[in-house]
Structure formats: C-alpha cells, structure tokens
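$ ./design --mode recover --in tokens.txt
reading tokens...
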C-alpha cells in the first residue's frame, strides 16, 4: 500500500488508477475520508469502497478547521501505524496522509459554507464545524478526483451537508452512505469512545437506548415529533450524568425540524459524557 503525502501525489495515484481501470470506468476510484483512529466502522467504509470501486484510497487527516477552540483537536487519537494496517488489510491501495500545511497552505483564505444546513444539529452546538468539514472534504474530493466517496450514517448531519455541497458544487463524486456499526450492546462506534471511562462507557448506552425507543414507537405507529422527542428525553432522564446536547427529528435532506416522522426522517441525538460528546441516530422507516 502506498503512503501519499501531497495533493500532487494523490492526484497522480488517482489518475494512474483511472487509467488502469479503463478511462471510461465510472467506478474507478473510491475515497474514504477519515480523521484516523480507525475502527470497525471505518473498516466497513473501506470494504464498501473496495467492493464497488476498482481502486480505493483512505485519507487520514485530523482537520483543525472543524474543531472549535475549546475542543479536542490536540488530544484527538492519532494511531497512524495501526490505521495503515487496517486500511491495507481492508484492501485500500493508498493512504493519503497530508500535513496541515499541505491542506491549508500559508494564508489559505478559501472556505466552503453550506448555508442553512451548516448551522443545524451539530452545527448549532459546534459553530464553524461543518464549514471546516465541507472545506476539507471539497479539497480531498478535488485532489482525489474520486468517483465515489464513502461516509458513515453515524454522522448523519455531516452526510446531509456533504450531499448538498457535492450537488451544489457539481463535484461529480457520488456520496455513498454506509450503515452505523455498533458494539454488541448497541453503542455506535466512534473514535471518541476511546475517551470514555468505564462508568461513562456504560452511561453512553443511553444514546442508543433513546434511538431504539424511538424506533420501537415508530414501529407501533407513533409519528408525532413531540411524542418521540419526549420519549427520548425520558430515556436520558434516567441517566442524569449524560448531558443532552440535542434531540431532534428533522428532514434528512434539509436538517429542518419536522412535526411528523415521515419515512426517511432523521431522528438524531447528541450528548456529553464528561467532556466527551457522542452522537447517534436512526433513519425512520
Ligand atoms: O467524519 C470524519 O471523520 C470527518 O468529519 C471527515 C469527513 C473525514 C472530514 O474531516
């Protein structure tokens, strides 16, 4: 597996991969953008990329612009060697691991802002977060010239922002969304789970419990947003150590709140366990 450090190297790799796949192949190059600290959730994205594209690359870049000033940029887990092993074992042919200066050259002043969507859900509690995500993903997709890019449904609001961005900028990459991967007890996999103490790890199950409760209610015919959100609040109330950031029922495309859970609506929660912020969600059937 190749380790690529510059945009030029990534572009060369991608163009060569496209030539090998045949110039007109529509699924020649797949990209899995990550911030590293790879886990089974990322492995599922890499698997999907390898299965549906002739050549797959993983990017590993802890993107400073998507972290707020008091957030965990400095202490975000960095496990590069293990990440490369996981990427190679999954069949990725290249890892793109640029420096901050490579992605943000001295004086970089260009940002991508998906107006409206960027201020909703995680964007409301993490101002500037989605601007950072949209900017770095644009740079990655332009550099990789990928046919498909793979993201996890766990970051459902991010998916909505990126889908809109790719459409608006006509980036020509298909956004592929892969299902949430969970631990056996229901906890959604996240690189930030590594921060949790033993006690917090148990309390963190409140998020998936709230999601399951709402799914069960919808299955039994309940569709009213206020009832679904209230039920989730009751689940959180049982575990007061878990501080709710948001509980929302929204249209997945616009992230605007809805009053009724139509099929395809996004039910999403975010909560703090100590300093650690976790998210979870479900797309209602
Ligand atoms: O989902 C993530 O890991 C990040 O937000 C992404 C998409 C790699 C951009 O830095």
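writing sequence...
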């Amino acid at each position: 597996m190749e380790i690529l450090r510059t945009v030029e190297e990534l572009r060369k790799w991608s163009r060569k991969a496209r030539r090998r796949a045949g110039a007109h192949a529509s699924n020649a190059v797949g990209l899995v953008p990550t911030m590293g600290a790879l886990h089974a959730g990322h492995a599922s994205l890499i698997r999907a990329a390898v299965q549906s594209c002739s050549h797959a690359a993983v990017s590993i870049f802890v993107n400073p612009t998507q972290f707020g000033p008091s957030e965990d940029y400095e202490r975000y887990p960095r496990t590069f060697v293990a990440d490369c092993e996981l990427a190679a074992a999954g069949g990725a042919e290249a890892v793109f691991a640029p420096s901050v200066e490579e992605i943000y050259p001295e004086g970089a002043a260009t940002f991508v802002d998906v107006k409206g969507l960027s201020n909703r859900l995680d964007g409301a509690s993490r101002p500037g977060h989605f601007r950072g995500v949209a900017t770095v993903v644009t740079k990655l997709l332009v550099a990789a010239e990928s046919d498909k890019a793979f993201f996890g449904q766990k970051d459902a609001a991010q998916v909505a922002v990126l889908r809109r961005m790719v459409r608006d900028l006509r980036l020509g990459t298909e956004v592929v969304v892969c299902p949430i991967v969970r631990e056996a007890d229901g906890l959604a996999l996240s690189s930030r789970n590594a921060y949790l103490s033993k006690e917090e790890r148990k309390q963190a199950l409140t998020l998936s419990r709230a999601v399951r409760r709402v799914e069960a209610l919808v299955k039994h015919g309940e569709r009213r947003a206020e009832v679904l959100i209230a039920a989730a609040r009751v689940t959180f109330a049982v575990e007061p150590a878990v501080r709710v950031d948001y509980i929302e029922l929204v249209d997945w495309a616009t992230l605007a709140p809805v009053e009724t859970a139509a099929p395809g609506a996004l039910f999403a929660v975010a909560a703090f366990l100590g300093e650690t912020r976790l998210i979870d969600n479900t797309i209602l059937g």
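exit 0
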